[in-house]
Amino acid sequence: MAPMAPLNASKTAINPQEKEEKTSYSRSFTSLPVDVLLRVFQWTDSSLPRMKLVCRHFYNIIKEHSQALPMIAIERLSINGFKPQHGLPPNMLYFWIEKVTQDRRFQKKTFLSGHALIVDGQANSDRPKLSELLRHIKITRLLHFHQMALNESLLTELTQPWIDLSDVFMLDFYFVERDASVENGLRQLLAKVNPNILNFAANCRTTPELVADYFPEHMSHPSLPIDPVELNDAHLIWLINQRDYTLKNLTMLSDSTSISIHGIIDFIHCWLRKNPDGFEKMTKLCFGKIASSRQEIHDATDCQHMIDTDLSDEHAAELVSANLRDPTRLLHIVCRYQDV
Amino acid sequence: MIQLCSNDDPPVSFTVPRKAVELSKTIKTMLEDLEGFDMEQTPIPLPNVDAPTLELIVKWVEQHQDDPPPVEKPRVEDDDSDDSDADDDQEPEVVIPEWDKKFLPTDDEQKNQLFKLLNAANYLEIKPLLDIGCKYVADKISGQTVEWVRDYLNMENDYTPEEEAKLKEEIAWAEGL
């Protein structure tokens, strides 16, 4: 389309200085209104937090509207109170990225099912606040606090309105020092999350504790230590057959073990045969598993499917307690695999 | 046909089919308000749009005048409904059509023209053009360093070194995700 002179050219003449200001204004990216900038930010995916570093204007917009912007899904977030240490635990194979800052160490691990983020160091410090760390994160499975103080400050941070805990399957406080004055903060937290997802260290039985309780002969003979990695399917069945064996509220086999998915399935079936009433109220089992093949991932999926459907549907009602039909899954398998 | 005038001195005017120009909600509303006047003889001045930008706008609306109308959805800032159905709340994926990819001024030396086009599309309320422009800029800055984004968007670092260090700590977790 060829441009043509306007009919009322003289009426629309603009002062050059005014025009320069107008032109400068209208060509600037930041002159766009907030709702348009938000449209840009909503498509920046995992780069969104970085956009806050560009300038104060971006920071204020993203912070003010964080709840309207897409969040980054993290499957598991662990906050560890102890000082950052280098090195990874043995027997664990991950694809991971590490970033060390002045106060913290961040490890990002990528599994087939999603990302895990581990933060070490000074979670209660004000540099920066935990609530700012969590502003753009949507945790889809586990939020885990380890070796730190559970105090009013931490609970206040967790109950900030922009923190989304709606999809958290388990909120785990492990080896935390519980401050006596946290009742009010806990009440606020309970108003925000389903109480069934809360777990405290006192209720937790982990792999080393199981070993200490049920394989004491190994513990008393240092020459015959039973490393968690040696814990196998036969041990699980042996455990079930012990008369005094009871499941604590949370049983975690979270270390790298030799227990197979089929062993977990047999364990569940044996337990149900032994205890027709099913699992005690609030029982949670968590099997951490480093898969050695893709087939194990499929087996784990099948096992989780059995837990979600076969054990909790109407046909199995005579076998399991009502707890298993609770919408909150009581049995949970974390199966990890790295293609090496 | 409708005449649109740029903010240049002297102004430059473009003659555009009414159907095409009505892709601009701003101009469509104006034409509806002035129903009864002979708008074909009255140029519409656009004080926020210069001639090169207006030429791009005219080219785009003429190309898209026969497109089906976009589905109306509230913008992010206005969307305060408490509809909990996540599927309904999700914005449809914006895909930049091939013609538009060639149309957008995407060379680095043309970036100021792109920003002027975005401002004009916003002023004239041409949502589909604004969407593809925003999507293009979002794709362009995603994954880039902060310094690169500042340079691309012509922005100054207005943080103190202390503030910047604190912010880097705040977002450190997101690096590499």
TrEMBL record, chain A:
Region span, Disordered: 1-22
Domain F-box: 30-64
Origin superkingdom: Eukaryota
Pfam families given in the database record: F-box-like
Name of the protein: F-box domain-containing protein
InterPro entries in the record: F-box-like_dom_sf, F-box_dom
From TrEMBL, chain B:
Signal peptide: none
Domain SKP1 component dimerisation: 127-174
Domain SKP1 component POZ: 1-65
Coiled coil: none
Positions of transmembrane segments: none
InterPro entries: SKP1, SKP1-like, SKP1-like_dim_sf, SKP1/BTB/POZ_sf, Skp1_comp_dimer, Skp1_comp_POZ
Gene Ontology terms: biological process: ubiquitin-dependent protein catabolic process
Gene3D superfamilies found in the cross-reference section: Potassium Channel Kv1.1, Chain A (3.30.710.10)
CDD domains noted in UniProt: BTB_POZ_SKP1
Superkingdom of origin organism: Eukaryota
Family label: Belongs to the SKP1 family.
PANTHER family found in the cross-reference section: SKP1
Protein's recorded name: Skp1-related protein
